[in-house]
Write a structure and sequence with these properties.
Bound molecules: flavin-adenine dinucleotide
Strand order of the largest sheet: 15-12-14-13-17-18-16
Oligomer: single chain
Helix content: 25-40%
Largest sheet: 7 strands, antiparallel
CATH architecture of the largest domain: 2-Layer Sandwich
Length: about 450
């Protein structure tokens, strides 16, 4: 059966068959598929597909899946293609199913505090829309041009995870299409759900291996009255990171805590064309607060009272313009590094009390190996974003990555905090995941997708 997956009908015949479903030739490509749609956000690895199809409705998704299932055709699901781990690189040929045109915000229900949206809605469009009418969608991964479907499939986290949690915490309901074309609905507008096994939560974070998400009901919260940011300079990155757990224990209630070294900051300044609004220090914490004005001011006061005891050289509240600049610089760091050199993105997560030890280890490994590494990240939740600069010597890079992942596991860390496994981290994921967990994952995959046609390239069966 697996061999048959690759024996698919190509060219004109497939186009004709797909046209009988989609009925719009502008949305079907069977030749000259633009490279962008055969790749991920880095666009280094380019895959191969027999067709690229832009779907507009759940019914179309269902019919395409029925067609693919019947003919054993591999399907690669795609949102905006911003992922950095190769999860939208079709290595099994087949069909690339693009959901970016399913981009309608269907309802904002102020009575239940929910938004119902199609999977292809961009995060930035949803966030702006709800803010404009007094609501807030908290999940905030760095890439705002990603789709909600992609955020759900990767269980995207982002800056505000320490206060608000991750995408999973905002998914009340899902509509999805299974590999055989069946349409299923899970959850709804209810806040709670203790009704049997949570199929919804299996699909969230499954990287498109279990089902195609077509629609979702998302939780909203009231828009916070105010947003403020503060910079804390430190004499070293270690000092900055060590202070994080202490600040959290002091109950300052931050929305985000990000760490950033001066050298990395300079890259961000150069890329964004913006100037960091102060100072000279080796490392900084950027701390964001939101809530009522009273609450935010009181938390900043609390921060001022404790920060100096925990190694901060200063506490600098930012005005609105400077805050915007600082977060713009922080937001562009992946692209800033990539603009200078190709890099291997790593998003290892360790327990928060081990972040400093892990980052120190990164620095030591950098010095010993001669491989440049740029580290920044979500200090509040131990998620270290590491750009390992590529080197011609591939063995050297592999050795460095082996050592870093081994250290993370020794510290009880995990392969990925938020970007997912995709193609690029499969080796480490398989090595570190207990066999019994892998067996369960494989059985779940089989239960959802007996013929293993959905995102087969990253499926847990390989
Ligand atoms: C500069 C930058 C910064 C980032 N910062 C963060 C961060 O701070 N926190 C964080 O968590 N992430 C971060 N990310 C990763 C980001 O969250 C993902 O790239 C994004 O969520 C993927 O959305 P997408 O629409 O581009 O999905 P794609 O890249 O198209 O797809 C990603 C995965 O989801 C699957 N998929 C997509 N749509 C669907 C669907 N409708 N149904 C089922 N499966 C689907 C795909 O098959 C693939 O496996 C960052 C990425 C970049 C480029």
């Amino acid at each position: 059966m697996l061999k048959a997956l690759c024996r698919i009908k190509k060219g004109p015949k497939m186009k004709k068959e797909l046209l009988s479903i989609i009925k719009d030739k502008e949305r079907i490509f069977t030749e000259n598929i633009p490279k962008k749609f055969l790749s991920d956000g880095l666009q280094r690895e380019i895959g191969n597909a027999s067709a690229l199809v832009f779907v507009k409705t759940t019914a179309e998704v269902s019919q395409i899946m029925k067609y693919a299932y019947k003919k054993n055709i591999a399907v690669t699901i795609r949102g905006a293609g911003t992922n950095l781990v190769g999860s939208t690189v079709p290595t099994q040929k087949g069909i690339v199913l693009d959901l970016s045109k399913m981009n309608r915000i269907l309802e904002i229900d102020c009575e239940t505090l929910t938004a119902t949206v199609e999977a292809g809605v961009l995060l930035k469009d949803l966030a702006e829309k709800v803010l404009s009418i007094g609501y807030f969608y908290p999940p905030d991964p760095g890439e705002k041009n990603s789709t909600i479907g992609g955020n759900i499939a990767t269980n995207a986290g982002g800056m505000r995870a320490i206060k608000y949690g991750v995408t999973r915490d905002y998914v009340h309901g899902l509509e999805a299409v299974l590999a055989d074309g069946s349409i299923i609905n899970m959850g709804g507008k209810t806040v709670k759900d203790a009704s049997g096994l949570s199929l919804k939560n299996l699909i969230v974070g499954s990287e498109g291996t279990l089902a195609v998400v077509t629609k979702c009901i998302l939780k909203l919260v009231p828009k916070p009255e105010t947003f403020k940011s503060v910079i804390l300079p430190y004499k070293s990155l270690t000092a900055a990171i060590i202070s994080v757990a202490k600040l959290l224990k002091a109950d300052i209630k931050p929305t985000a805590i990000e760490f950033i070294e001066e050298s990395v900051l300079l890259l961000g300044e150069k890329y964004s064309g913006e100037k960091f609004p102060s100072l000279k220090a080796d490392a900084y914490l950027l701390i964001a607060f939101d809530g009522s004005l009273l609450e935010v001011n009181s938390n900043i006061e609390k921060l001022k009272n404790v920060a100096f005891n925990y190694g901060a050289k200063d506490v600098l509240p930012l005005n609105e313009t400077d805050a915007e600049i600082v977060w713009k610089i922080r937001g562009c760091l992946v692209n800033a590094v990539e603009a200078i050199n190709q890099q291997e993105p790593v998003d290892i997560v360790v327990p928060i009390d081990k972040t400093a030890e892990f980052v120190n280890f990164v620095h030591k490994t950098e010095a010993n190996s001669g491989i440049k590494m740029v580290a920044f990240g979500h200090a509040g939740d131990g998620n270290v974003h590491l750009c390992v600069i590529r080197d011609k010597n591939k063995t050297k890079i592999k050795n460095v990555l082996d050592v870093l992942y081994a250290k993370a596991y020794e510290l009880n860390g995990l392969t990925s905090g938020e970007h997912g496994i995709g193609l690029s981290k499969k080796t480490y994921f398989f090595k570190n995941t207990p066999k019994i967990n892998l067996i369960l994952m494989r059985n779940i995959k089989k239960a959802f997708d007996k013929k293993q046609i959905l995102n087969k390239h990253i499926s847990y069966l390989l």
